Amino acid sequence: MYTGIGASAGIGIGSVVIVKKPSLAYENVLVADVAAEKSRFQEALAKCIAKTEAMAEDMKSRVGEKEAEILEGHVLLLMDPEMSGQIESNIENEKMCAEAAVELTCDTFAQLFASLDDEMFQQRATDVCDIKTRLLKILLDVEDVDLANVPAGTILVAEDLTPSMTAGIKPENVAGVLTEIGGKTSHSAILARALEIPAVLSIAGIVGKVENGQKVILDGETGEVFLSPDEELLAEYTAKREAYLAEKAALAAFIGKESATADGKVVELCSNIGKPEDALKVVECDGEGIGLFRTEFLFMDRPAVPTEDEQFEAYKKVATTLEGKPVIIRTLDIGGDKEIPYLGLGKEENPFLGFRAIRLCLQREDLYRPQLKALLRASAYGDIRIMIPMITCVHEFRAVKGMLEELKAELDAESVPYNKDIKVGIMVETPAASLMTDVFAKEADFFSIGTNDLTQYTMAVDRGNPDVAYLYSTYNPAVLRSIERVIRAGKAEGTMVGMCGEAAADPLLTPLLLSFGLDEFSVSATSILATRKTISLWTMEEADAVAAKAMSLATEEEVHEYLKSVAKK
Ligand code: PEP
Ligand code: MG
User: Fold this and answer.
1) Which terminal residue of the chain has fewer beta carbons within 10 Å of its beta carbon, N or C?
2) What is the CA radius of gyration of the chain?
3) Helix (H) or strand (E) run with residue 41 in it
4) Which residues contact 343 (CB under 8 A, 6 or more apart)?
5) Which pTM value belongs to this model?
6) 427 has a pLDDT exceeding 80
């Protein structure tokens, strides 16, 4: 068995077709007629642009607009006068043949992009290589690999699957994809997911380990790959595949549906994200908004604080991707288990109880004000709402509101647009906030219950310590009482109450949350449809009965067992 990166979910069972790159060898001779060589290149360039545009069009109609954007990006690169100018000057000044000039110029651009420490530029390097191959094929009159005509049940095995190769694929014939390079966010992964083809990427040397026609099983979730499986394994994975497809087909029926109980009570079903790019997945999975954008990820894995402008662009991107749907953006929640080395924060005895989130931000206005200002500026581009983490006291919330008023005045003076009625809410994730929800409800525009931390703080149990993990459970009656209290107190004041902790996606808790009156569930993108389905299985009467019984129980075990016994599938 081999293990790679599971990049597109599903079980693929089929026979190998190895996709080898065609030979693009050419005779590297100096040219005598420079003008003729330049026009040979111009002709090839025009053909290449037309071909790529046609591929983008085809991709748009067969797969989707977002996927076509990759190829549209190639068209822009091809039209870039800097690149084509460089190729022509290599022909003119160095007397290179068009092939050599294309190769040298594209390699130089690709190396430049690859050397930049940024995933987007790394991807741009792959794009340039893809363009180089396409231009060389036209110049050398080499036929493309014909992926459109592979037999049904094909497992494509390639070093990499470039967008131009993928464009021709007929998903009904391709049971899976295996490659030697690429990761979860590479274009091949994005396209495989868009085409719903199971894919495992980044298995070193896989092309040399298989033969054409060999049977293969791959699991796009776990990244496992089995070569020449025996009958038993085949039967096991055929059953897994059928179960996966049946479940997926059933969930697809929930795309475009309202998130409503069986008797018609409508709730909002949003999603949690960590990076601006994740917003697209939320739209694809039919999320009704973003319930939590964990902005601390913008601050991690980099050498310095992102500037106000960088943050503005990130927030704006999410707002525009969601096209007017609500986008709740949480301000910086660092400290605890989330470290940012360049901030130089000292080690603490009890980091979860220490200098984190809003406590830190209120003392580090140099960090906080640019974030709040970027959020206000981005609010002109969608329905952005600001959420404050780790609130324990009302004065913390008032301090943020005060800061926001000052920043609004600055923006007015600068004539910069923003949403004057921007909603500002709090995460309820500490027992203090939970006990004070009736007071907070009068000042905050919304609540979102952070059950991950609320469980930790209510139970006085470190959420990452395995020795006390048995205490870390949202089914604990103390935690459930806290959740019920927050929802009911919020409702009594007409404050919108959501939940963005992991418990929002727990099907066992759905009837309780519905019964308490939760307005908004925010779950990971891949849990959206499953959560919509669970919600649809309950009537409010049934949910109320389950909640009443569950809340009468004394222990975590009793609650958990009871909820399992009444769960609906
Ligand atoms: C939570 O605490 O429930 C939450 C959603 O925030 P995080 O997991 O980022 O602490
Ligand atoms: Mg939290």
Assistant:
1) C
2) 27
3) helix 34-62
4) 305, 334, 367
5) 0.68
6) yes
3-class SS of residue 495: coil
Amino acid letter, residue 249: A
Give the 3-state DSSP-derived string for 3-22, with helices as H, strands as E and coil as C. Answer: ECEEEECCEEEEEEEEECCC
Please give the structure tokens belonging to residue 211: 């033969």
**Residue 526, pLDDT above cutoff 90:** no
φ/ψ of 335, rounded to 5, equals 95, 180
> Cβ < 6 Å from ligand 1: which residues?
292, 294, 333, 429, 450-453, 500-501
Q: How many Cα atoms are found within 13 Å in the side-chain-facing hemisphere of 533?
A: 19
How far is the centre of ligand 1, averaged over its atoms, from the C-alpha of 145 (Å)? 48
Residues surrounding ion ligand 2 at CB below 5 Å: 429, 450, 453
**Whole-number pLDDT of residue 259:** 98
- Mean pLDDT within 469-486: 96
Q: Please tell me the distance from the alpha carbon of residue 425 to that of residue 564, in angstroms, as a whole number.
A: 33
Contacts for 183 with CB less than 8 Å, ≥ 6 apart:
5, 7, 189, 201, 202
| Predicted local confidence at residue 167, as pLDDT | 66
Confidence of residue 185 (pLDDT cuts 50, 70, 90): low
Q: Which residues sit opposite 523 in a β-bridge?
A: 271
Amino acid type, 432: A
Name beta bridge partners: 269.
521
pLDDT digits (tens, 9 = 90+) for 242-291: 999 998 888 999 999 999 999 999 999 999 998 898 899 899 999 999 99
Sequence-separated (6 or more) residues with CB below 8 Å from residue 314? 276, 295, 298, 306
Question: For residues 125 and 136, what is the distance between their CA atoms, to the nearest angstrom?
Answer: 17
8 Å CB contact between 498 and 520:
yes
* Residue that has been written with the tokens 């601006």 in this structure: 276
Residues 28-50 have a mean pLDDT of 93
Residues designated catalytic: 187, 500
Predicted local confidence at residue 549, as pLDDT: 98
What is the 492 CA–ligand 2 centroid distance (Å)?
A: 24
